[in-house]
Amino acid sequence: MTTLDSVIDPAAATFRENREALLARLTELDSALDQARDGGGEKYRARQHKRGKLLARERIELLLDRDAPFLELSPVAAYGTDFPVGASVVTGIGPVEGVECMIIASDPTVRGGAVNPWSLAKSRRAGEIALANRLPMINLVESAGADLPTQAEIFIPGGRVFRDLTRLSAERIPTVSVVFGNATAGGAYVPGMSDHVIMIRDRSQVYLAGPPLVKMATGEDADDESLGGAAMHATTSGLADYLAEDERDGIRLARQCVRRLNWRKTGPAPRTADPRPPRYDPEELLGIASADLKVPFDPREIIARVLDGSEFDEFKPTYGTALVTGWGELHGYPVGVLANARGVLFNAEAQKAAQFIQLANAADTPLIFLQNTTGYMVGTEYEQRGIIKHGALMINAVSNSTVPHLTVNLGASYGAGNYGMCGRAYEPRFLFTWPNAKSAVMGPAQLAGVLSIVARQAAAARGREYDEESDAAMRTMVEQQIESQSGALFLSGRLYDDGVIDPRDTRTVLGLCLSAIHTAPVRGAEGFGVFRM
To answer: Which residues contact 170 (CB under 8 A, 6 or more apart)?
Structure first.
């Protein structure tokens, strides 16, 4: 393989400016993550401990293998909404008894763990990842059920959570539930539809309707234990497969269940068990991405700090040079990389990408998309040369490729370039964002300018004088709105990615994802749609 050489100068003024800008964004990210970890606040965390109960992340830590990594997903879900950051649930991937599992843990310190629209979306995304990558799922349940003020937004789509659990089971992907407290109404179907169910003596309460509702519906006086207690379900209803004495015992039994799954990965193993790290310091990733998104940077400098040994065999290096494509390995796994070099995608870049994606599918090789694009080139010359059909060619290839895709937004992700570089709508297995990144239909200034031109033309068509003062105010307002709505935290809060990550963690995060992906078979497409040539 070819070893990449770096020309980065950490002492350069531009490097230092880029680094300071990214560190400022990381400070904002850390603040949001702190809010998520705080859950419902010190008062409710202390109350949970006083009751002899563990916090959601404490349960996860005990469940995971000792000193094992945990890839938390969507940690700032609901950021910028009326709901607490984190959306009252923790999701992520980590090894249990050596088996990589998807873990979903209710956070009872946030409104009793009630399910709101964002926690529903976050849990469903976890289910999608588990199904696509064949990851056993473990639910750590303690929830007050639906957040009633928003029931209209969660009741009907919420049924998919239960459907998804049964589909995992049908695909022979194991599901385990540990019930630590309440699992009421619809929440009762989470253990009800799991393959393995563990309940905690004198703690778990699982019923379709609690004592007050039973009284109202039937006139029956019932107590919690006889209606839905752990001992009753273990001895009478049969819903509980295991009866734990306390929370730690319940977690022990969950690990025991996983140990007895006889679970094996079906994807290929890494080529080497001891891959060489990149030749360059990942700390330098903070100074490479431009603070000004309009200023391009060489993505090879990123690739050199992510791939094993900084080795990268570039494909068509002198053709379509605004897109870098090539082959390498990451933590021992073969990968193909597509990375934007100059923001704009031209005709040649789109054709090059389509061919490269086909080659990756022919070789059953996962693809990594490193986004920093303003979209496909516009203008008379490029329209006449067929930019629409060439862009469609690339998007067709991305859409019908069946090898796993991993996407990281390093800077800009605008317009149809977001689609061609495998944005959220194109269902990459995982999508992460750097804290400096932005995504929108176009840049704020461009969007405001387009609206101004349209308004100016409308005024001229009516024979009216155009109000320049109102135009300036409109442009300022639109630019501010798009600037705020295209930021990494805003978009991550709405689950348009799987998390905002520290650039220095990019190699580690991608490595964990590749390991999870290879739990399932890795197979390329046997055919694509009609390519308009």
So the answer is: none
Say whether both 283 and 216 belong to one domain.
Answer: no
Do 521 and 380 belong to one domain?
yes
CA dihedral 420, 421, 423, 429 (to 10 degrees): 120
Provide the domain limits for residue 475.
444-485
Q: What is the pLDDT of residues 119-161, one digit of tens each?
A: 999 999 999 999 999 999 999 999 877 776 787 788 888 888 8
Contact criterion met (CB below 8 Å) for 194 and 267: no
pLDDT at 479: 73
Residue 166's closest CA among 133, 193, 138, 130? 193
**What six digits make up the tokens of 79?**
């950021």
Phi, psi of 161 (to 5 degrees): -60, -45
pLDDT tens digit sequence for 194-205 = 999 999 999 999
State the residue for tokens 């529903």. 120
User: Looking at 54-146, which runs of residues are DSSP E strands?
Assistant: 71-73, 89-96, 99-106, 137-143
Which residue's structure tokens are 């431009």?
290
- Residue 273 pLDDT: 87
CA distance 63 to 100: 12
Q: Identify the DSSP state of 235.
A: I
- Other beta carbons within 10 angstroms of residue 111's beta carbon come to 18
Q: 18-32 as b/e, with b when 16 or more CB fall inside 10 Å?
A: bbebbeebbeebeeb
Q: How far apart are the first and last CA of the chain?
A: 33
Q: CA 110, CA 492: separation in Å to the nearest integer?
A: 20
Whether the CB-CB separation of 93 and 103 falls below 8 Å is answered with: yes
DSSP 414: E
For the chain, the domain total comes to 3
Q: What are the two backbone dihedrals, phi and then psi, of residue 476, each rounded to the nearest 5 degrees?
A: -65, -45
66 CB neighbour count, 10 Å cutoff: 6
Distance CA 205, CA 55 (A): 18
Q: Which two tokens stand for residue 28?
A: 């904002």
d(CA 432, CA 206) in angstroms, rounded, equals 36
CA-based R_g, the chain, Å: 25
pLDDT tens for residues 225-269? 889 999 999 999 999 999 999 999 999 999 999 999 999 999 999
CATH number at residue 60: 3.90.226.10
